[in-house]
Design brief:
Blueprint: E1 8-10, H1 12-18, E2 30-36, H2 44-52, E3 58-64, E4 79-82, E5 85-89, E6 94-100, E7 106-113, H3 119-132, E8 137-146, E9 156-160, H4 182-192, E10 197-205, H5 214-228, H6 238-254, H7 256-274, H8 291-307
Parallel strand pairs: 2-7, 2-8, 8-10
Antiparallel strand pairs: 1-3, 3-6, 4-5, 6-7, 9-10
Helix pairs in contact: 2-5, 3-4, 6-7
Length: 308
Amino acid sequence: MLDPRGIYELDEQAVARLWPTPPEPGAGPVLLHAVAGFVDAGSAGEVAVDHLLGIGEVTRVVTFDVDQLLDYRSKRATMTFSTDRWSDYDEPHLVIDHVRDAEGTGFLLLHGAEPDVQWERVVAAVRDVVERLGVSLTVGFHGIPMGIPHTRPLSVTAHATRPELLGDHTSWFGTVKVPASLAALLELRLGRAEHDALGVTVHVPHYLAQSSYPPAAVVALEHVQRVTGLDLATSGLAEAVQEAKTEVERQVRDSEEVAAVVRALEEQYDAFARSVGRTSLLAESAPIPTADELGAEFERFLAQQSGD
């Protein structure tokens, strides 16, 4: 592997301002991450990142060299053509920002485009930053499609490098193989290097997976708040949440086919809620999917994403 330091630039002046005294190992800020490019049902991660960047002071700390990391022909950026000239370029980025929460507590946020290549090198670079800045906990978040109705509370799958980080969380899965992501590899590698890392995956109703669904972002952020103690001002998303719920209800009313799907999912969800000692979201009468079936469902979703 090539030297990880060759793909990113650390702003030493910003680091000196933010941390006049270098943090002790494990006593520094929390690092949150949500990179675009993998499964993010309901745009849970994207909406959450946009919200986080708007709640407090933002300082750029790390900038990755995306020219080394992206395949521009597979992830074409957007340019703006105005009448007779090119006027703008939506430049792709992968960065780590220092952000302050609603109470002024600083944390780090890794966001931008998921690299197409050199994953191990990028992960090693992030690990360098984790160790340089004494990061205490790394937390990722995104959404996945799930057969649940929007009329019931959204559930999550949490995973971590140590069981103690999960508390009393109940897992909805056994063992399953799914397509890899930078976020998952980062968590795995950090754990093997004895750094604490955790991920929160929000279960988004599958019929809303391709739409922006702010309630999923709020659920993700609320879980992040619980494990980090940060104040992420989720009330700032209240209007967007209400608008999304209102629009979904309108579409359900306007389509009997969609309404029938929602009713069926409600019956299944409620049957599970009435059961005791179950660790599956499926009702008693429903077959439990195999690992292969779950993996195939992820692959179908990914195929739909790449086809758009």
